[in-house]
Amino acid sequence: MQKRYLLAPGPTPVPPEVLLAMAQPIFHHRAPEFAELLGRVRDDLKWIFQTRGDVLILASTGTGGMEGAVSNFLNPGEKALVVNGGKFGERWMKLCNTFGAKVEEIKVEWGQSVDPQQVADALKRDPSIKAVYVQASETSTGVAHDCRALGEVVKARPDTLLVVDAITALGVFDLKTDDWGLDVVVTGSQKAFMLPPGLAFVSVSEKAWQKAASTKNTKFYFDFKKERESQLKNQTAYTAAVSLVVGLAEVLKIFKAEGLESLFARNHRLADATRAGMQAIGLSLFAKSSPSDALTAVEAPSGVDGQQIYKQLRVRYGITAAGGQDHLKGKVFRIAHMGYADTFDVVIAVAATEMVLKELGYAVQLGKGVGVAQARLMPAGK
Amino acid sequence: MQKRYLLAPGPTPVPPEVLLAMAQPIFHHRAPEFAELLGRVRDDLKWIFQTRGDVLILASTGTGGMEGAVSNFLNPGEKALVVNGGKFGERWMKLCNTFGAKVEEIKVEWGQSVDPQQVADALKRDPSIKAVYVQASETSTGVAHDCRALGEVVKARPDTLLVVDAITALGVFDLKTDDWGLDVVVTGSQKAFMLPPGLAFVSVSEKAWQKAASTKNTKFYFDFKKERESQLKNQTAYTAAVSLVVGLAEVLKIFKAEGLESLFARNHRLADATRAGMQAIGLSLFAKSSPSDALTAVEAPSGVDGQQIYKQLRVRYGITAAGGQDHLKGKVFRIAHMGYADTFDVVIAVAATEMVLKELGYAVQLGKGVGVAQARLMPAGK
After folding, report:
1. CATH 3.90.1150.10: which residues of chain B?
2. Which chain B residues are within 8 Å of A378, Cβ to Cβ?
């Protein structure tokens, strides 16, 4: 017998009350109770997105939302500036290319966050850039890009949109969609939203809707204008993923009970303790600046294969973490601490890492990293 | 948001596959599929009880099984010898008194296990003793009594039964019902059997059935002879707790997949690591001899209220452990590690204890106990 622990950066564990809600008998997506439900979750999504604008609910994973965030806001031949600092920056590149944009790339070394000045300079050099694509949290490297600063850079330009992949950011750390001028923000259900995969959420600013009115890219399922028309009537354009929306309502209840500030504080506490614990073991964080509070990418110590760490966590201890992607394969392993995560998930992650490293022949003092993490995890006060 | 952890000595957590099985639509207890199910679980119960005799399934908690283990095997006025070394030894006393037995008590200091020689001497002094009542694992103190040695003492006597409360023992550590001569063995669903409360299981030896044939105590619901007649036909005398029996079948599948030896080895590994971790924090075990592998009773350090440790584990860290009972209230807290328990439950228990003690002002080096526990928890080989 071995218990299983899901500490990967998505899908993340689903809370029991959400699983129970989703296990209820399904009802019809054109029934009045679904419209009532959709109205409620649409309101609550605005709250967590910190926007007064629309937040679309799509039956797709986050990548579907990203596709729509390209196809609805760029015409073929228009210029896009892509911040590419990892696997998901590359996904923006591929999507922009697929939909016929001219792409200018700001290549950011994996493990670094973009310097907002670089974006400002690129925009200044080329007034024809119609949209900037960036990750709020780059899941492949565990690095956050400074969306607040990027918002400052972009919002002064009436003809340029800022499009943010917040798939491992929204619900993890503060992201003020309206105040910071984030025109399009995309996230998915299976990260901080602690739902099964299958839903994407996309907020769209008025500025972005104005642009969408005139874009001509080929799209059908991810046609945001059509979807908006339906959702303003508390309907979905196509069949809604009913059970997931039922689960979403439960998740939003949990979020509201906790409150934004506590939610972000908890995620930060868990992230901070994970980073401190891993460093106390003698490991280096892969993020050289602005580590994301959603997940921690940890470098394998020299002489130890990162894939072995990832694999042994699973085989020996029932823990599903993540390995490195592409050229990071074998060099890093990644531990998530977003969504349905609490104090002892971090304790487990650090303890298991110590045990696996010891088994792999790395000199580690069992309990040392855990102790440092424990100290950071202890809630203040009372 | 706070995750909840159930580390109390019952009820214990129920594995997800068992919860799912029990969530299936209910079927009728007189339907053929229930008889088929009951036949299967009766066979598998014999395997885990290590007996060729009958194992009755009762819709009650363990105490109901204990009541039947008195009322079916003692006549009013007959003499019972009760080993009383804790709260559940006292329960044997109360039951024997309730059913009109003459009770001789071997009082064992709480925290100690009985010396089998004391039982042998008492039996030698008084040939009229018809049954010896004992706990295999005394849940209030975390102490195991040596049932193998007691079996040796009792089985030579044709007119004396050995009745064992194995509620926190069966499925935790080795208990050879037939080989050791344990005539009646009682357990419940909500401990090592990792089911919700509501079922008791009682094995009965041929020697005990012979005694039962002539006992005259008042009983109806817990009439084992009547129950046996039904269960030999794969029926229950009264309504069966259908969903719990469905869950039981899943649990027995898990037990069989793990195997008895591995099951006991895992429980021992978790118990050993808990004891070593708590001692490394500087705490003393309450069990002064033969600690039970089901749970660990830990003494609160001087100046710290044990009830505060128990309470703060829950309030601060979402962990339900147990406090001390009766005169141990405030003096000990108890952590279980039986049933659906694995490596990181122990890590969580020791880490949380460190953190709570530190918050309560006790000098503790965070991670020290955890490190010692980790070393004991690391599986050998491969």
Report:
1. 260-377
2. 355, 358-359
Among chain A residues, CA nearest to B267: A1
Beta strands in A23-115 (DSSP E): 54-58, 79-84, 102-107
Contact present, A340 and B3 (Cβ < 8 Å): yes
Give the rounded distance of the alpha carbon of B186 from its chain centre. 8
pLDDT of amino acid B148: 98
Q: Side chain identity at A306, as an amino acid letter?
A: G
**ipTM for the predicted complex:** 0.91
pLDDT for A379 beyond 90? no
What's the CATH superfamily of B260-377? Aspartate Aminotransferase, domain 1 (3.90.1150.10)
Would you call A288 exposed, middle or buried from its count of C-beta atoms within 10 A (0-12, 13-18, 19+)? middle
Q: What is the mean pLDDT of residues B264-293?
A: 97
| CATH 3.40.640.10, chain A: domain bounds | 16-257
B137-138 vs A5-6, strand pairing mode: unpaired
Which residues in chain A are contacts of B352 at CB distance < 8 A?
Answer: 344
User: How close, in Å, is residue B324 to chain A by CA atoms?
Assistant: 24
Q: How far is CA A156 from CA A160, A162, A182, in A?
A: 9, 11, 12
pLDDT of residue A381: 53
List CB contacts of B227: < 8 A, sequence separation 6 or more: B56, B58, B236, B237
Query: What residues in chain B have their Cβ under 8 A from chain A's Cβ atoms?
Result: 1-3, 5, 23, 254, 257-258, 263, 266, 316-318, 340, 342-345, 347-348, 351-352, 354-355, 358-359, 365-372, 374-375, 377-379
Residue in B372, B374, B376, B377 to test binding to A, most A beta-carbons within 10 Å:
B374
Give the pLDDT of residue B382.
Answer: 43
> What is d(CA A152, CA A174) in angstroms, rounded to the nearest whole number?
16
Which of B1, B5, B368 has its CB closest to that of A266? B1
Closest by CA position to A375, among listed B171, B215, B187, B364: B364
Per residue in B122-171, pLDDT (tens digit) is 999 999 999 999 999 999 999 999 999 999 999 999 999 999 999 999 99
The answer to whether the Cβ–Cβ distance between B379 and A316 falls below 8 Å is yes
CA dist list (Å): A215 to A68, A185, B12 = 12, 18, 58
Please give the residue of chain A at the shortest CA–CA distance from B353: A374
Measured between beta carbons, the chain B residues lying within 8 angstroms of A344 are 3, 5, 317, 344, 347-348, 351-352
CB distance A182 to A132 below 8 Å: no
From B3, B344, B375, residue closest to A366, measured CB to CB: B375
Fold of A259-377: Aspartate Aminotransferase, domain 1 (3.90.1150)
Please tell me the distance in Å from B359's CA to the nearest CA on chain A: 9
Q: Do B358 and A352 touch (CB under 8 A)?
A: no
Chain B contacts of A1, Cβ < 8 Å?
254, 257-258, 263, 266, 340, 342
Task: Say which CATH topology domain A16-257 has.
Answer: Aspartate Aminotransferase; domain 2 (3.40.640)
Where does B147-194 show beta strands of DSSP type E? 161-165, 184-188
Is 90 exceeded by the pLDDT of residue A380? Answer: no
Q: Where, residue-wise, is CATH 3.90.1150.10 in chain A?
A: 259-377
How far A38 CA lies from chain B's nearest CA (Å)?
24
Amino acid at A109: E
User: Alpha carbon A35 to chain centroid distance?
Assistant: 27
Contact B354 A374 (CB under 8 A): yes
Q: Dump pLDDT digits (tens) for A152-203.
A: 999 999 999 999 999 999 999 999 999 999 999 999 999 999 999 999 999 9
